[in-house]
Amino acid sequence: MIHRPSPNHGPRRGGVRPDLIVLHYTAMERDAALERLCDPAAAVSSHWLIDRRGEAFHLVDEELRAWHAGMGSWGAVTDVNSRSIGIELEGDGSQYPAPLMEALTRLLRDIMARRDIHPARVIGHSDMAPGRKCDPGPLFDWRGLAHAGLSVWPEAGEDEPSGTDAALLRFGYPAFVSPQLRLEAFRLRFRPGASGPADAVDAGLAFDLARRFPIDRWDKAA
User: Fold this and answer.
1) Catalytic residue (one of 35, 88, 102, 184)
2) pTM score, two decimals?
3) I need a surface site. Which of 28, 47, 48, 49 has the fewest CB within 10 A?
């Protein structure tokens, strides 16, 4: 671990403690990303950055509010920065080398154990900001993280498509965007490549997520 302090942070509003982890990609090379995340003029930051070689950079103390999430929500949480820890992953989402994923696994395991964060509270930037953000992208191995107990994955099934959007809301997808954007964000993470209107497969996956991981069950401030 390398300490590279960023000045871009502030106190967590309302005295809350983080119970979400938001995963991002940098969309630029490591050195450029570090420079931007530590530049006061850029006014962006994250708590951690992991490069392709698996080196972890600690940029902002986890007790502080880093500026990584921007506008969005997860369930009832609208100030995601105050409730979350942000982790940037080097690259543009076209590949996630094994050393990077191994380092991410170690970091997630450590943070989640220290802060008692449930796997359902590990989300992507695209989950909380549908239509605005697409990281960490369709090639990110969410299923692998879930198998390691560090995220969640739905069990396959089929159900009535008309109830898909309600299930996505119960899982945590933002209410402030359209049903189409919620569906696209869900598919980006859980069913990349799917298109068209919600179908029975979407419904089965969404209902399973809503049944096993309803947002209110894991939101400590709910």
Assistant:
1) 88
2) 0.97
3) 28
